[in-house]
Amino acid sequence: MAGASPLNSRSDTPLSPSVDESRRGLDLGSDRRFLAALILIGGTYVILLLAMVAADLFYTTPGHLWRALGSPEIRYAIRLSLLSCTLTTLLSLWVAVPIGYLMARFEFPGRAFLDALLDIPIVLPPLVIGLSLLILFQTAPLRALETVFPVTYAVPSVILAQFMVACAFAVRTLRTTFAQINPRQEQVAMTLGCNRAQAFWRVVLPAARPGILTAATLAWARALGEFGPILVFSGATRMKTEVLSTTVFLELSVGRLEAAVAVSLLMMGSAVVALLLVRAWGGAGLGGGTSLQHK
Amino acid sequence: MISLRHITVQAGGFQLRDLSMEIPTGSHTALMGRTGSGKTTLLEGICGLRSIRSGSIWIGDREVTNLPPGQRGIGLVPQDGALFDHLTVRQHLEFALEVRGWVPERRESRSRELAEWLSLTPLLDRFPAGMSGGERQRVALGRALAFHPPVLCLDEPLSALDDQTRGEIVAVLTEIRNRTGITILHITHNRSEAERLADRILHLRDGRLES
Prior knowledge:
Chain A is an all-alpha fold. In chain A, about 75% of the residues lie in helices and about 0% in strands.
């Protein structure tokens, strides 16, 4: 449609050019090509991911899984994994709730340093964490402790190795969760008669529930997948410090690929369930949850 | 009466210095000022949510300068209501009463009374999710008034509402004042809102109060 602009009544030459003219030089088909390129590049990764899972699934037969589940060593590893991951999760929440809340609400000297410190377990190679724990437990006070309460190369070391990494993820998640809760809510609770602790228990903690569940699930899944620090700090002793990730390593090292794949599939299944739970709880603290309402 | 005597409040790098004012008992005072003029900082200072560097705050004949927020007898209604998403309307209305250890029967009768008064009775068992702006503000008002505070602080309670709802909340606020004789300090940057509701308007300009 060619015509004069309604805003410009005295002009003889139209200010609004014709549609043809306005489209000249524009490559309107490029949107489709752009999207196609995005899908192609991203799709490669997704296909690889699915192919990996499919390969594992096709490699394993129900017989392999059954045999793996029948082995006393693997049954022990399943039990120890469930126990250690659950304890790790509880310990992680116990620590991450206070740290997350403090970091989200208070300004204090050394806060930036603490912030960086809390990320160390996330960025450090897992093996290094195991090695550092091993060295730490060679120091005099902790060696004294080990004479009454053995840690290194025993079950407590598995939990400690898992905890050091899993807790960092719980802290990250809960810090975001608490930061997303409007501080006005606590303040109103305080004008209504609560002290800080009461405001925390009655208002903040219930509001943080989805984030706490997400943090717990992430910590659990992370603990289940932990391997490097456990290998170094706990060893890989069958029927003693063997968790599922250790099983995969041990079975693989003696050439029993079927058993390694069967156990991998078990772990994969657990991880998928954990991820689904995180999604179901709204992924709070991971970008979801209440919006920030600062004034 | 709320009386501020030479108070200095600090918020980060921002400071309100040597402010004094008196708000008569039963009055509705609007505190106006531009964004960033320190209205909310002052309100937080009065409510005990921000510590005072110097000076004193009195409510009636009681000095509250160093009292925790819950002991000052101030009901606070923030701009967005700041409702508790995990509590029902009834639990909101009974929140302060439960913290203060009221027996269930008294709590129940007070929440019923407030709900009736604020037209919240049909919503008593509902959670805040999905409520309209007007409903949320009425819940926030009910929650603040439940424990019979002598002072009500409103932080831009109408700013997030549409015109019709605003009229409705203005009517509620007028009725609250007529019924209870409560002293109201009302922060706003809307002149017509201040003129409709307040019998006194104060301006916070360059860190000073002017009437």
